[in-house]
């Protein structure tokens, strides 16, 4: 059989190693899944990107670190030791034979399906802090990538000292490297208040918790725990800006008062980290009772890809689950049992019941996030970036302006979203392509949910009616050197230009059409050689 030399047919990939069960994330769900899988007789690889490289943290990846990191975070060995002390199960799993990869990000999962059917099995892309990237083969994957926080634009939010409360809690409890000591918190979700309790235990002073609504979003029992700590909850308030100078944040300006602080922590809603799942092709839906966009799941944590499962916060977030890590651990064990069964292994008599965990009574997280964005949107000036990486303002997003560096104001008429996007709900991907909002180094982690909420407000839609901008691999920012394979199939290297839709390198310039189209790419021509 003869293959088209410019197709992937007949090409080979350099697979560094293989494992039966790949677990991504070493939180409660990932640790429980890895133990269940190794106890069931499978070969297991456990990957966790912590400790995250300082340079990556500077881009607010994978969480909204916001410059809250102390200098000690640069000492990678010390941070690894801190992580092992905080999660002693890692050492136990290593002793039982789990292949543990710390400081290693999984930047992509690739599974053969209808539109991708040439690979030698399922493959994961891994990259470590030393700049190495490799492909790993797996039979079953359990994704337990956790959560991050939603961003919120206001004057000064791009200054060091404004970050996510989950990121702050990670720095304080996992790394003991949180720079801020006196914080004001925005938001009162259950996850936010639980993080506040953790931060207080770590020695952080919480000056106040700000809530735009008339009452806290969390239940009364959790609110009572906060009040017992003497922390004021200011309801009916919202942020108007941050006070800052060359030394960083020194206060926050609210609607009715100002408070001195050295950090501002965003707790408007924990976001399930679904980037790896969605980029792999897993179907996702908006479920307000599970924290926003989450994967479509079966009872065993199964997704719409047969050999990919989800557990922990990336599978859904709600108050009871956040307060008790046993819920996430149970999800991890259930997913591991299902993976063992798919591998034809005996899961034993102590198999977890395969039933979905029921979230709390539904909280309208969509309405809550929209209200927070609404309270600050009216005050955003044209010098406040919603997308920090690309410096895109709120008005430019809502009026769909092209990037300022194109100097397009003279030849582009202002248009409404409806005019540009046509019938139906606005699509953040279209807005991203036209304005560049969400196309920066942080890969939309600071602005993705904000843009979604702004479009929903503009068109008077429920939050779930507007999709998120899609994720694509690599879901972590990588250099081209990191992505380049150590060994490349010569047949693939010979045809590299066609993979990017580029004109053939040695095609005479007089044979290249003035308007280069996809149709012209499909035509073979004679090529000039050296």
From TrEMBL:
SUPFAM superfamilies assigned: FAD/NAD(P)-binding domain
UniProt superkingdom: Bacteria
Presence of the UniProt keyword DNA-binding in the record: no
Alphabetized PANTHER family for the sequence: ANAEROBIC GLYCEROL-3-PHOSPHATE DEHYDROGENASE SUBUNIT B
Location of the SoxA A3 domain: 415-483
FAD/NAD(P)-binding domain sequence ranges: 20-319
Oxidoreductase among keywords: yes
Alphabetical keyword list: Oxidoreductase
This protein's name: (2Fe-2S)-binding protein
Protein source organism: Tianweitania populi
Example of a GO MF term: oxidoreductase activity
Pfam family, one: Pyr_redox_2
């Amino acid at each position: 059989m003869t293959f088209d030399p410019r197709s992937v047919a007949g090409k080979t990939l350099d697979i560094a190693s293989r494992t039966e069960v790949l677990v991504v994330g070493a939180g409660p769900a990932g640790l429980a899944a890895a133990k269940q899988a190794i106890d069931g007789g499978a070969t297991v690889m456990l990957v966790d990107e912590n400790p995250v490289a300082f340079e990556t943290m500077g881009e607010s990846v994978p969480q909204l670190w916001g410059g809250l990191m102390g200098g000690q975070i640069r000492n990678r060995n010390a941070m690894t030791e801190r992580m092992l002390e905080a999660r002693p199960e890692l050492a136990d799993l290593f002793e039982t034979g789990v292949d543990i990869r710390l400081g290693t990000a999984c930047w992509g999962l690739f599974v053969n399906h209808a539109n991708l059917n040439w690979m030698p099995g399922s493959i994961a892309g891994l990259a470590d802090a030393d700049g190495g990237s490799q492909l790993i083969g797996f039979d079953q994957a359990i994704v337990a990538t956790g959560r991050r926080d939603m961003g919120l634009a206001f004057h000064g939010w791009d200054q060091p000292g404004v970050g996510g409360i989950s990121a702050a809690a990670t720095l304080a409890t996992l790394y003991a490297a949180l720079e801020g000591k006196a914080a004001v918190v925005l938001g009162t979700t259950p996850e936010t208040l639980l993080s506040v309790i953790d931060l207080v235990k770590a020695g952080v002073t919480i000056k106040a918790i700000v809530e735009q609504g008339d009452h806290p979003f969390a239940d009364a029992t959790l609110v009572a725990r906060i009040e017992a700590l003497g922390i004021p909850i200011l309801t009916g308030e919202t942020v108007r800006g941050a006070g800052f100078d060359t030394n960083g944040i020194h206060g926050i300006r609210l609607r009715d008062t100002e408070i001195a602080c050295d950090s501002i922590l965003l707790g408007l809603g924990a976001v399930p980290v679904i980037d790896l799942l969605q980029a792999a092709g897993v179907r996702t839906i908006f479920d307000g009772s599970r924290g926003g966009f989450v994967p479509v799941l079966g009872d065993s944590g199964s997704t719409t890809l047969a050999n990919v499962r989800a557990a922990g916060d990336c599978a859904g977030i709600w108050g009871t689950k956040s307060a008790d890590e046993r819920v996430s651990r149970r999800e991890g064990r259930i997913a591991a049992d299902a993976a063992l069964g798919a591998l034809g292994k005996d899961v034993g008599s102590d198999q977890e019941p395969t039933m979905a965990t029921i979230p709390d009574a539904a909280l309208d997280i969509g309405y809550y996030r929209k209200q927070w964005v609404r309270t600050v949107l009216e005050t955003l000036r044209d010098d406040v970036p919603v997308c920090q990486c690309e410096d895109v303002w709120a008005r430019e997003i809502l009026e769909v302006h092209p990037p300022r560096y194109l100097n397009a104001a003279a030849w582009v008429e202002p248009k409404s979203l409806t005019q540009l996007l046509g019938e139906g709900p606005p699509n953040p991907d279209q807005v991203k392509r036209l304005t560049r909002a969400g196309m920066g180094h942080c890969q939309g982690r600071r602005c993705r949910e904000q843009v979604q909420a702004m479009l929903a407000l503009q068109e008077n839609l429920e939050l779930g009616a507007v999709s998120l901008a899609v994720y694509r691999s690599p879901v972590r920012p990588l250099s081209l050197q990191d992505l380049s394979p150590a060994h490349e199939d010569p047949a693939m290297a010979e045809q590299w230009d066609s993979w990017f839709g580029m004109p053939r390198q040695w095609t005479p310039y007089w044979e290249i059409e003035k308007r280069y189209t996809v149709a012209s790419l499909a035509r073979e021509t004679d090529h000039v050689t050296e």
